[in-house]
Design goal:
The protein is of the alpha+beta class. The chain has five helices and five strands. A five-stranded antiparallel β-sheet has the order 1-2-3-5-4, with helices on one face. Strand 2 and strand 3 form a beta hairpin. The mean pLDDT is about 95.
Length: about 150
């Protein structure tokens, strides 16, 4: 991050396994991006990636913190969770690969596209994961990427 001050900062807790509230943070972020006036295609890719990160916490972790900093020309998101971590990050990026248990898949989640969607939608993606401790996802979205 830079010394630039954001227009809006958002910080929300995410509870692992809470499917009743799943997607609430991403929906709130979508409303904020619309109110700020970002173009819909830009907001859409930010919200898709944010939703995937949020759902990964709900599906795989015990708890997490979602933070977003909204600047005039970019959005910075960090999602930090306490959970099992990702043992094989390269494998986890393969579309269709999932470690979600069957009961999660039966609800329509955990299809194995979360990380790849985050990568496709963001301009910068960084993942720091430690098995048995958790995962931190950092994403940047630039309105006019250079």
């Amino acid at each position: 991050m830079t010394d630039e001050r954001p227009l809006i900062e958002l910080e929300r807790k995410i509870a692992g396994g809470d499917f009743q509230s799943a997607g609430d943070v991403s929906s709130e972020l979508k409303r904020i991006l619309q109110q700020v006036g970002f173009p819909p295609p830009f907001s859409r890719r930010v919200v898709i990636a944010a939703y995937e990160a949020e759902m990964n916490v709900v599906i795989h972790a015990w708890r997490g913190i979602f933070r977003a900093w909204i600047f005039p020309n970019r959005v910075h998101i960090e999602v930090d969770d306490e959970g099992p971590g990702i043992p094989d990050l390269e494998l986890a990026f393969q579309e269709g690969y999932s470690t979600a248990p069957p009961h999660i898949r039966e609800m329509g989640f955990g299809a194995g596209y979360g990380l790849s969607n985050m990568k496709k939608c963001s301009d910068r993606l960084e993942i720091d994961t430690r098995v048995g401790e958790g995962t931190k996802v950092i994403m940047d979205f630039f309105l006019n990427p250079s």
